[in-house]
Design a protein that fits this description.
Layout (H helix, E strand, L loop, with lengths): L1 E3 L6 E4 L10 H11 L10 H21 L6 E4 L2 H12 L5 E5 L4 H13 L3 E5 L10 H9 L2 E5 L13 H10 L3 E5 L18 E5 L10 E5 L27 H39 L4 E3 L9 E5 L5 H7 L3 E2 L15 H5 L4 H4 L2 E5 L6 H26 L2
Organism: Nonomuraea terrae
Cofactor: pyridoxal 5'-phosphate
Catalytic activity: (sulfur carrier)-H + L-cysteine = (sulfur carrier)-SH + L-alanine
């Protein structure tokens, strides 16, 4: 994806899809068409019915992408809201909530809050050096019989490492616990069929696969019994889960992006995976001491977490303004603490601070990757040279 800056109009290679993906053309057109119409989706007149029909179509399109029924979907402002709804609904006071140590803050901070408010217990499952979740603490918690809900992400936002949810779901359900998954980075990038993946709830954000920012959804499996604990109380929209007038243009954009992602999913995933391999191989050949985090585990096709030992990631980014990458989760940018994900995988503080995340997507080209390899190699060399010069007496 080529983007022009406001200052020098230079072309920027965009490799930060895990932060947000460019808006798909189909989503833009659906949004513009909705913006040209008037009507509240809760109104019974013709304009209201038109708005409601756009919402219904989007719900159907998203359901096809996820392999669920439209009635199992609740529209939200994004995965953060969906995660809050899921954990607050699924948790029971005084019981145990289990999650993993490498979750996004939108899970970890909510989990800490609800267990503190409910005088309960929080268990954070550790991971090995490749990012794979260790199940022993979950087995112990389940034997104790007080687990209310287990939340484990499908794909990590920093490393792209995929979580094998099968054993987690089995242990949780045998213990009578609900299972939730934050699938924000997974949806629209790899095939997903909720008829086969037996989670009870699942969260997503549309802007990760080409929908606009500010729209997402929570899947709640039909037949699951739990209290609604809405964050927004009012008119009772979305079956009482989320009050407020529906964001029809955003929802229409989400549905259009879901349909576009579904129809191109396999081809896009294969092409993006090939480009990621080219990127990683190119960086390894130019910078032989760099390391790929999570490369021994199954990963998302478009995510490369690369450590450049001894070189501060923020300095590398500053030295290559033509490349839009990340030195961690965009949602935690500016934080003085190192990546909790990389630290949980056993990286040192210095190595965690020397790690860049490149995330590719549907519009990434071979030329983008070639430019990224050359720019990164040059930037790392320049920063190392500057550091060596500064260190001289």
């Amino acid at each position: 994806m080529n983007v022009s800056t406001d200052t020098d109009r230079a072309e920027v290679v965009y490799l930060d899809y895990n932060a947000t993906a460019p808006l798909r053309q189909e989503a833009l057109e659906a949004m513009l068409d909705s913006l040209g119409s008037v009507g509240n989706a809760s109104s019974v007149h013709m304009a209201g019915r038109d708005a409601a029909s756009r919402v219904d179509l989007a719900r159907q399109r998203l359901a096809r992408l996820l392999g669920c029924t439209p009635g199992e979907l609740i529209f939200t402002s994004g995965a953060t809201e969906a995660n809050n709804l899921a954990l607050r609904a699924g948790y029971a006071s005084g019981q145990t909530l289990v999650t993993t140590a490498v979750e996004h803050p939108a899970i970890l901070e909510v989990a800490r809050a609800v267990t503190a408010d409910g005088a309960g217990t929080l268990v954070e499952l550790p991971v090995d050096r490749h990012g794979a979740v260790k199940l022993a603490p979950l087995e112990v918690a389940c034997r104790q019989g007080k687990v209310a809900i287990v939340s484990a992400m499908l794909a990590n936002n920093e490393t792209g490492v995929l979580t094998d949810l099968g054993p987690i779901i089995k242990l949780a359900h045998e213990a009578g616990a609900l299972v939730h998954s934050d699938a924000t980075q997974y949806v629209g990038r790899l095939p997903l069929d909720l008829n086969e993946l037996d989670v009870d709830m699942l969260s997503l954000s549309g802007h990760k696969f080409g929908a606009p920012q500010g729209i997402g959804a929570l899947f709640v499996r039909r037949g699951i019994s739990m209290p609604h604990r809405p964050l927004l109380i009012g008119g009772g929209q979305e079956r009482g889960w989320r009050a407020g007038t529906l964001n029809v243009p955003g929802i229409a954009g989400l549905g259009a992006a879901a349909e576009a992602a579904r129809t191109r999913l396999h081809d896009e995933a294969a092409r993006i995976a090939r480009l990621r391999h080219v990127l990683e191989d190119g960086l390894r050949s130019r910078l032989r001491d760099c390391r790929i985090n999570g490369d021994r585990s199954a990963r998302l096709p478009g995510v490369a977490s690369v450590t450049f030992p001894g070189v501060p990631a923020d300095a590398v980014l500053a030295a290559m303004p033509e490349i839009a990458a990340s030195d961690g989760s965009a949602c935690a940018s500016g934080a003085p603490t190192p990546s909790h994900v990389l630290m949980a995988m056993g990286l040192s503080r210095q190595d965690a601070d020397s790690t860049l995340r490149f995330s590719l997507g549907y519009a990434t080209t071979e030329n983008d990757i070639e430019r990224a390899i050359a720019a990164t190699a040059r930037a790392v060399a320049d920063v190392r040279a500057a550091m060596a010069s500064t260190a001289k007496p």
